[in-house]
Amino acid sequence: MIELNGIGASDGIAIAKAYSLKEPEFIIENKTVSDKQQELKKLDDALNQAKSELEQIRDTARVRLGEEKAAIFSAHLLVLQDPEFIEPVKADIENNSICAEYALKEKADMFIAMFEAMDNEYMKERAADIKDVSKRVISHLLSVPLPNLSLISEEVIVVAEDLTPSDTAQLNGQYVKGFTTNIGGRTSHSAIMARSMEIPAVVGTKQATSEIQNGMILIVDGFTGKLIIDPTEKQLIEYKQKHEQYVLQREEWSKLVNEATVTEDGHHVELAANIGKPEDVEKVLENGAEGIGLYRTEFLYMERDKLPTEEEQFDAYKTVLEKMEGKPVVVRTLDIGGDKELPYLKLPHELNPFLGFRAIRLCLEQQDIFRTQLRALLRASTFGNLKIMFPMIATVDEFNEAKSILMEEKQKLIQENIEVAEDIEIGMMVEIPSAAVLADQFAKVVDFFSIGTNDLIQYTMAADRMNERVSYLYQPYNPAILRLVSMVIDAAHQQGRWVGMCGEMAGDKVAIPLLLGLGLDEFSMSASSILPARTQLKHLSKAHAASHKAELLAMDTAEKVIDFAKETYAVN
Length: 572
Description:
Blueprint: E1 2-5, E2 7-10, E3 13-20, H1 36-65, H2 67-80, H3 83-96, H4 100-116, H5 121-141, E4 156-160, H6 165-169, E5 176-181, H7 189-197, E6 201-203, H8 208-211, E7 217-221, E8 226-229, H9 233-254, E9 270-275, H10 281-286, E10 292-296, H11 310-323, E11 328-332, H12 360-365, H13 367-380, E12 385-390, H14 396-415, E13 425-430, H15 433-437, H16 439-442, E14 448-451, H17 453-461, H18 479-494, E15 498-501, H19 511-518, E16 522-525, H20 530-538, H21 542-546, H22 549-553, H23 558-569
Parallel strand pairs: 3-4, 4-5, 5-6, 9-10, 9-16, 10-11, 11-12, 12-13, 13-14, 14-15, 15-16
Antiparallel strand pairs: 1-8, 2-6, 3-7, 7-8
Helix pairs in contact: 1-2, 1-5, 2-5, 3-4, 4-5, 11-13, 13-14
């Protein structure tokens, strides 16, 4: 028996045989070719075969994972057709008589190195895309087939150095009970897809592939990040019981789908969901969310080569509002920048994009983009309960300017005899410390706040959440964060405004009782977290949680806050 510790990337327990996913060894030599036209044809054939495979994988991903996840493969198809990538390969064949596989690998390695060197998570992901695509093309050039995970027909746990988006999309949840990798984190493509498919996963084990052989029995504990190789009989019994308990727990959660979220002492809070695409609404409704607390509209702009039209946006917003049937839908206006870039906008490179020209800052300068989105939102407003919020607001002037532009577009539509909802609530994200500190002034001009803890934490602690060396400073429970959250809630309530939270913290079982005690009105989270959160809140008392507010805010370390939550509310 061997135990490895990694990162729990997707909840659940999996027990099955190991399926070792070994990449084929490509032997690529710098060979000269005599028939350049034949070599160019070989390259075109390989590109077409790769294109056909990726289209098939994308279609499968749409059915299994939804449009948002399938968009990864649309991006891969764009790489295949990118003249900046493909034309230099062809030029190498024509001018230097180099074999196609060597020419392709050389250019792919150049782009991969360039993107990996960038201090930007979005561009680093583009490096992974090029790796995945070039590997597929080279496999056809060398006639060395890639493993076909879609052919797995028995219960297994997949073991790999890493899983590419193409790999993960081919996993059939009927047979693939879990997976584990040497590298990766909770925000990697494979981890995100695992959560969408509800497949338990442990990533970042460092040595899974070296310790595990095909056919070994494995236990994947997606809750704790533990991987057990060749478990004892006692461990098998223990983890089978844990798995059965989790299945029963999910059945209990499902009974609350149509219930309101009410605490033990009768206090109602709203549980909403975060979405990125209209297709995500199905999961929102399946899990009984009382609304959408964050619609990330930037996904409408990403993985494409030009801005979405007003009509395309109108259709997307209308679809979401109609599907939600009058439940509140909070739409965040375009939040591009930081780790989310739009290559077709050709914005200048920034040394620190998270603190740079992004979100509302970009929209206030490039108003044509902003006004198009606002028109689409306003036109869609009559089809449901729309609320609009602006991201990355740092000053009262920014909010007032953004609201003024929104009102201008509303008046233009009315003059065009286009119907617009009368009372649309207009709010803002609180993700910059200056906004939290000045919440009493913002509360006079906004209709609501939504606290974005992912950014608020990294800006308050001056710690990049993508940087492993300072990851210890990413502390949701730090009293400094809790004080800022409390300031925002208190300021809003004094003006009769409501406050939501749409960062990861809102669905965190340790944070939920603390936030309830601070007075948070709306918790917005991933759809799969709704029912566990509703169950937890059902057994909490708002009055009891609020009675500990002063004690909580007087603490001096995150560790003390965590210990307090575990002891007081029995969370682990």
